[in-house]
Specification:
This protein is α/β, with parallel strands linked by helices and 421 residues long. It contains 11 helices and 21 strands.
Length: 421
């Protein structure tokens, strides 16, 4: 949690200002509170009560090893969307039978990795098309394995969120449309190496109410009951994730509210014995990561009294504002933020007009700033665009620096582009 005292901004028990200047690292740098992330996973688990469940953390939100290990300590498994993410999850000690593999473009080698994990492969490979059935069947046959699979089904629910993260409709590339399910069941019957163990759905991200989530879960449950009546033995039902957080405008529901709602729905169904799966990512890590940056310069134009604050973090470090029109709170590290102060448009150094973090109030030009709620989809979506090095990552635990993943530096980028490494 980010707080302020006489030492300035304190995060995870550490004064952030102490990390820079004469501290152990330079800006831009992501800083994560591992204790808070672990506590977040434990709080979500409480929403399930005694129901069998799996918190399948969406590794794409933040794939740093210390983060994944912290969430595993909090009781989470993993949901992955690539072979590399699968390797990270397994390497962080998550058991294969607590891992789900989603995604529309799984490569043969990635499927083999999932099938070869442990004694019987991972918990389930989530198939997102009818055509994928034959591909996974072929790999399972070649390896002499049985593949545990589930279907991601599009419930036809339009979530009230940004178009880029709405996934529950049939125009999305994800999942199997309900109209295609008869073909899916028929193809599955012709795949002797596949065992259907579950069904899943996902309507989108940054959900700030449970209504759409529950509507999709009801659709999935209806399909599951019919499938079980036809002879399927479903072990798990995955209602997805997408739980929102408070980016400053409020968020009336907590992740545990989604867990309680899903639990009540499943408890009252003929599939009450099934394991309930959720796939949170952002809600476990976003609020417990910040991006710290230094101010390069302030720019002012007398034309309209426009003011810009140029910082050393850009859209290559945090792309969410450019990609999703997301707004993150930006505050000075050395003083308390003011609600009513001259507005500065905070921008980065990248040569794009979209490298813009929006207007924020500053009483005076600070030396450094902190961008809040960047623990999810920050570093994992970062790039080296414009020849800019990836940011550093600082991991806090127990009120101190636990580890640092240093920036590779610009020289490493230059050598790579010159072909000398």
């Amino acid at each position: 949690m980010l707080t302020r005292d006489a030492r300035g901004v304190v995060f995870g028990g550490v004064p952030l200002g102490n990390l820079f200047g004469d501290g152990p690292t330079t800006t831009p740098a992501y800083v994560y509170d591992l204790d808070a992330m672990e506590a977040e996973a434990r709080a979500l688990a409480q929403g399930f009560g005694e129901r069998p469940h799996l918190i399948a953390y969406a590794v794409k939100a933040n794939s740093a090893g210390p983060v994944v290990r912290a969430l595993a300590r909090g009781g989470a498994g993993a949901e992955v969307v690539s072979g590399a993410e699968l390797a990270v999850a397994l390497g962080c000690g998550i058991a294969p039978d607590r891992v789900l593999y989603s995604g529309v473009g799984k490569l043969a080698g990635e499927i083999d990795r999932a099938l070869g994990a442990g004694d019987r492969g991972i918990l389930a490979i989530q198939m997102e098309s009818v055509e994928e059935i034959a591909r996974i069947e072929a790999r399972a046959a070649a390896l002499g394995r049985r593949a545990r699979v589930s279907f991601r089904i599009n419930p036809g629910i339009e979530a009230d969120t940004h178009a880029h993260v709405a996934t529950g409709h049939d125009e999305a590339k994800f999942g199997v449309a309900r109209a295609d399910l008869p073909a899916a069941w028929e193809a599955l019957a012709q795949a002797p190496h596949l065992d259907l163990v579950g069904l899943s759905c996902h309507v989108g991200s940054q959900l700030t109410q449970t209504g759409e989530y529950l509507a999709a879960a009801e659709v999935l449950l209806t399909i599951a009951v019919a499938r079980q009546a036809a002879g399927a033995r479903l072990e798990l039902l995955d209602f997805g994730g997408g739980f929102g957080i408070d980016y400053g405008a409020g968020c009336p529901v907590k992740p545990a509210d989604f867990a309680r709602a899903g639990r009540a729905l499943l408890d009252a169904s003929p599939l009450a014995a099934a394991t309930l799966v959720v796939e949170p990512g952002r809600s476990l890590v976003a609020a417990h990561g910040v991006l710290c940056a230094s101010v390069i310069s302030a720019k002012r134009s007398l034309e309209g009294d426009r003011r810009w604050l140029v910082i050393d973090a850009g859209m290559n470090d945090l792309i969410r504002p450019a990609l999703y029109a997301a707004r993150h709170r930006i505050e000075p590290l050395d003083r308390a933020p003011l609600a009513t102060a001259p507005g500065y448009r905070v921008v980065g150094p990248v040569c794009e007009s979209s490298d813009d973090f929006g207007e924020h109030p500053f009483e005076a030009v600070p030396e450094r700033v902190v961008i809040r709620d960047t623990g999810a989809y920050g570093f994992t979506m970062a790039s080296e665009y414009n020849g800019r090095a990836l940011p550093a990552e600082v991991f806090l635990r127990g009120g101190r620096v636990d580890s640092i993943s240093a920036s590779p530096g610009v020289d490493a980028w230059i050598k790579k582009r010159l072909g000398t490494v």
